[in-house]
Amino acid sequence: MLAAFLAAFFWPATFVPLAGYMTPLLAVTMLGMGMTLSVPDFTMIARHPGPVVLGVCSQYAIMPLVGWGVASLLPLPDELKVGIILIGCVPGGTTSNVCTFLAKGNTALSVSMTAFSTMLAPVVTPTLTLWLAGTYMEVPAGQMALSIVQIVLLPVGFGLACNVFLHRQVARIQPAMPWVSVVAIAGVVAAVAAKSQALIATAGFLMFAAIALENAVGYALGYAAARALGVSRADRRTISIEVGLQNAGLGSTLAAHYLSAAVAAPCAVATFWHTISGSLLAMYWRLRGFPAGEDSQAPVRRLWERKGRDAALEPAGAEA
Q1: Is domain 2-307 in CATH 1.20.1530.20, yes or no?
Q2: What is the mean pLDDT of each run of 10 residues along the chain (320 residues)?
Q3: Which of 37, 49, 278, 303 falls 20 to 30 Å from 199 in CA-CA distance?
């Protein structure tokens, strides 16, 4: 994604035509996300909503306000302020699931939080963006909500249905889907970078500082909120990553279609920066480990045991 951003920045004319394909590219990414989900990921939310609801509420309470705070603090053009706020208002990114696994966090909680925050996005994301960014520019919240349904919920739902009813066929292509998603998101990033090249060149450093600050504060406050809720260390890491790591690719697409290319620019930068920062944080936690005697995988087992006895009785090799 970083390579795509740099290539589009230095050779914008080559990548501008990709702007017309941003919606299908993001839809492909969401389809890949749906193919990784299963029905128990959602039934777990209904049966034991506590950790998931608390985590998602923390995400939608913390990140939008952090984005608004950073945008208000730094002397950015109004369109970039809106972009920073929009980053905070989108749901959690799918990369958070991988980062949580690397951090020895609660992977099951991460998957459920991402799924739940994505389900809420058609209502929450436009509403929060209108509330926090409406003073800077007009925000077509209704159109954004409909677009999120079309390019996020429908592909995720279709991917989930394929995984449920065509599981064997989906299992054959699942290993390739992460790479397909990376290429698709790289296309979105390149399209936005190409269209916003002049703005990035003039305000790039301050914009990146705002993105990095928003991201870091999100991680820190997410961890602090989880600690205040009294959850395990593994769950704290999970909620921290889920709060700080956003689906900025969705923000890029929404901004490019309904706001402006300038608003999409911070979202494009955040797309690759969140992946880098999330991976670095995950590896730090992985190397740090847990205090002696603490079972970091216990929360994972507690959440995933709700998949039922059949899953629990599968041979050990089947889960790998």
Answers
A1: yes
A2: 73 80 82 80 75 87 95 92 95 86 86 89 94 91 91 88 86 82 80 77 85 95 91 90 91 89 89 88 87 53 42 44
A3: 278
